[in-house]
Design a protein that fits this description.
Number of strands: 27
CATH superfamily of the largest domain: Metallo-dependent phosphatases
Helix content: 10-25%
Radius of gyration: 25 Å
CATH topology of the largest domain: Purple Acid Phosphatase, chain A, domain 2
Strand content: 25-35%
Number of helices: 10
Amino acid sequence: MRYAIVSDIHGNLPAWNTVLSDLAVHKVDRIICLGDVVGYGPQPAETLKSVYERVHLMVLGNHDAVMAGRLDPDTFNDRAKGMIEWTAARLGSRARELFKSLPLVLVGKTFRCAHGDFADPAEFNYITTPEEALASFNAVPEQLLFCGHSHLAELYVIGRSGTPHQIEPQDFAAEEGKRYIVNVGSVGFPRGGDPRASYVVFDDVAGSVRFFRVSYDFEAFRAAASRNGLGPEQVPQLRDPRTAGLEPAREALDFSPAAGKRATGAVVEQDVSKLIRKSTARWKRIAAAAVLFGLVAGGAGVSYALLGARQAAAFPPERAPAVKLNAWTWSDGSCLPPLAPTQIDGFSATPFRVVLGNIRKQSVSSEPIPLAKRSCVVVASQDESAEVAFEAQPIECAPGDKMEVVAKVAFSQDFKGAVALVVRLLREDGGKFIPGAVLMTKNFNDQVGLKDENLPMAVRGLPNSEGWWIARGTTDPAPENTRLVHVEISGKFTGEVRVGGLAVRQK
């Protein structure tokens, strides 16, 4: 099984969203969070909701513990304590119930996870030196120990000599006779001079560990903090690491144990294999209620407008630049230019940007179409309530323009739901696309009587006998002040949908 192991998200929703998008490339089976979902960052409720919709297993962090009433807030420095109070006011009592249910430790067959050290997980001590690592090595038997807490990606190794060594974080395969402590770093508040979000992917069959770093939208994070009245005094990440650098961890944090800082009443450890078999529905229900309460109590609001809330699970995450509408002739192969190729399962999947509404119950891949000599994009969904969209890049057009659009899809035998071809107006505001009026909606139907030579190259070689259905139509003239138009294939369903092609031309 392949695990993505993340830690210390700290209410940084843009960083978390970027990590989620990156994880789609690595095809992980489970996501483990090593705690500290909230604290410091300006979007605790939104981040908590997203984490509990997508994370499979989680341990208690020190910021989570104080939210649960299991850790004295006076053990934190004044800045951290102030943000703890600010965060608690936006989460409410149901969030505390959720955090109370989290264990201090997760135990797998060959690995163990905790937020801080392993000698006494309830103390949340840091591992920042070989000497501190030795206490954890001596306390537990597993070969691989994963932690966070310090916000530093680090690697410690101990062999038969019994002397621990700290080495540069690097991808590795576990060797017999050696044991490892892997600090996965921080998603939302990385330290050590590298501002990028950090996480690892662990393959328990191969015994391999890979470190990953991804850049996130820092300006979106800054804007969220500003909307909530937070500045660098409250949120240390706002001291832009791209220009100012990050302070050393021992200057930013109090590493010395404080009297009474031990977490009380926490679940000590849970078995990973048993937890995987259990339903996570209860976590979801609690998290949803916690977030709802927090948003209401804090006076915040979350917009789930089309093309807005989808960003957390878009592959690739960035929208392609707009292209100009032309009166292309379909016979020569001209159609909507593809997005930048995206490797999925070893295939180059174009031309769509795929947006999933529920990353835990929906997945994107590709498969070859031998008859058409290309690949198609495939989305599998187990959640009929979560929307899926296959998006083309925005199209530049003018008032009065009409567009002819053709698309083909195939449905699995167990498909249930509805999918349609949609064309709508867009406007760009501050680098974001805001949806407007719908110009056309077409359902997919049988294509009896249609000949390939009368269709654009983008959808040729996909006959009805092979299970392909077609949607085809011409939009109304674009209204006054039109500049951008968006084409997508979207819907809510269970089963699988294959998108074989899309073509657009000026009519």
